[in-house]
Amino acid sequence: MTNIDWSGVRDRVAALSRTPDGKVFGANGHEWLLEPPLVPTELAELEQQLGVRLPADYRGFLLEVSRGGAGPFYGLFPLRRVDGRWRWEDGGADLTELGTLAEPFPHSGAFNPADDLPEPPEEEDFTTVEEFDAAEDAYWELHDRVAYDPKLTVGTVYLCHLGCALRQMLVVSGPERGTMWADDSADDGGFSPLTGPHGERIGFARWYLDWLDEATAKAREPLHR
């Protein structure tokens, strides 16, 4: 993979901090703040703990730009070292299964685990409210067990959220390593790779730098009166 030039990114983000509220979606969440980058020894310790080498463009970002903060939507989940262990924090970052990052992400195309579930129960099919409530509770318990099974996302790191429990993640192991995916399970939309206008897969660097270009363009737009 071609080396990414991350120089100037921190300055560009700092310049955007003067953008009026509301012009760039999610900026009220990250407030244009970037945490310090990792030093090489921290990155080495992180990868040793995870048991996996992170994709090159994300590694470069962590070393040259930031360990978290300003970024797409409500910003990048920050990497923190707590009691000697590294982890991503905030906004659903705990969905990242740190112990399974070396396992290959098993999917190569969009999928929705909820598609195979039966239809939810209808009240008119039951003689009492109690029976319907029990059937509905059982259905949603099954739904959540299937739709949110952590085995679905082994080998991925959750990097940000879009609000309403919608999130995006980076694949770090398996054939899809280095690509960005959307987790729309909260809307029963399942999982899908992020793609460009020609269907090409999008990696971390393009995902982040495209956001930065779009945010810069938004910031330059005139305010509507």
Automatic annotation (TrEMBL):
User: SUPFAM superfamilies annotated for this entry?
Assistant: SMI1/KNR4-like
Query: InterPro entries this protein is in?
Result: Knr4/Smi1-like_dom, Knr4/Smi1-like_sf
Domain Knr4/Smi1-like, which positions?
37-214
Protein name (database record): Knr4/Smi1-like domain-containing protein
